[in-house]
Amino acid sequence: MLKGIDPLLNADVLRALRAMGHGDDLIICDTNFPADSVARQTVLGKLLRIDADAPRVARAVLSVLQLDTFVDDSAARMEVVDAPDEVLPVQTEVQAVIDEAEGKPWPMIGIERFAFYERAKGAYAVIQSHERRFYGCFALRKGVIPPEA
């Protein structure tokens, strides 16, 4: 355990987050997502796990990861099949975590299920949570930390 670092962030996750560059995507997915097969196609090439629900995983990750401010899709959720505008409770909870981490309301776009799978395959890494609620899948794009002025 490290002082000041969320204890959910294990060594493998911290290494991946540190290695990611500006514009790289991180996927946080639920237990139903094809996480292992998708993760094998990412830059990291292996699945990471954090045993907590999706909002708790997002909180831990966003305690050290800055979202990208140069794009409109730095936070995304998997859309509900046949109801793309429906926002489920797990998605509302993660939205609140994102807003809190960024200190302001932050847009989270919806991505159609199969398009989300494609974005995930091109991600830097996939973290599978133990979230059992459906559509607990999110993409976060890493931003930059500005120099101290």
How would you describe this structure to a colleague?
It is a single chain. This protein is an alpha/beta fold. Helix content is 31%, strand content 15%. A six-stranded mixed beta sheet has the order 2-5-1-6-3-4. The longest helix is centred in the middle third of the chain and has 14 residues, at 89-102. It is globular. It starts with 10 loop residues before the first helix and ends in an 8-residue tail after the last strand. The model has no long low-confidence stretch (mean pLDDT 97).
Q: Tell me, what's the shape?
A: globular
Listing every helix as H and every strand as E from the N terminus to the C terminus, the arrangement reads HEHEHEHEHEE
Largest sheet: 6 strands, mixed
Strand content: 15-25%
Q: What would you call the structural class?
A: alpha/beta
User: How many angstroms separate the termini?
Assistant: 31 Å
Low-confidence parts, pLDDT < 50 over ≥5 residues? none
For the largest beta sheet, what order do the strands appear in spatially? 2-5-1-6-3-4
